[in-house]
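If it is no trouble, might I ask you for a protein's amino acid sequence along with its backbone structure tokens?
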Amino acid sequence: MTVVDAVMSLFSRPEADEWYDEAVTEREHALQAAALAAASGASDQLVTAALLHDVGHLIVRDLQPIDQKLARDAHHEVAGGRFLAGRFGPAVSRPVRLHVAAKRYLCATEPEYLERLSPSSVRSLEVQGGVMTSEQVDEFGRVPRHADAVTLRRFDDEAKVVGLDVPRLEAYREMLERVALHPA
């Protein structure tokens, strides 16, 4: 099975049809984030990161009971980042790994950002460590790919529209093939 086939199969699992703690499913959320990234003119790597930013939710379910949602939310970005690192490299995996920290960063640096978060995102913010301190903000600003993570976070926040018509998963196959690491 190729890297791309493995990713596609994750989004074919029944878990991808579960509600993403919002008004859309995991798959709908991923496709909307990717469509937003593509429409913004983002690189193929950032579109891939947007599409796969919550893949950790799909793979962590194999590791923990599904009813521990808030506990698993605290680590889906780590699981997703690790899963993607050897398959797509740091241009994809680092923004994915950092997208939760980017929410915490934006809450600390843009007071109006916190006010715009969905109720679900506000609830998960506390489990994820809360608003960053000024020291954490400075540290985050020095992490490679932090700016991409902030951009990804903004796509993530907007990708929660019921019934939005976006390209299907298969539309991203060619891009995923280009971005995927291919062992020699």
Remarks:
- DSSP finds twelve helices and no strands in the chain.
- The CA atoms of residues 23 and 162 lie 6 Å apart.
- The first helix runs from residue 3 to 10.
- The two ends are 16 Å apart (CA to CA).
